[in-house]
Specification:
mainly alpha, 52 residues
Amino acid sequence: MAKRQHRIGQTLVEYAIALATLIAVITMAAIFFYVFKEWSGRVLELVASEYP
């Protein structure tokens, strides 16, 4: 019985690590897309300011 409880605990730890990794990846992607959106907006403003 103790071996089964150990396996359940190990599974719980693995799911917790996978969930934390998934949240970190989603957060990094959101930050990347936000920064890219801001940068592209500034580029468009600079390009548009060159034309009369």
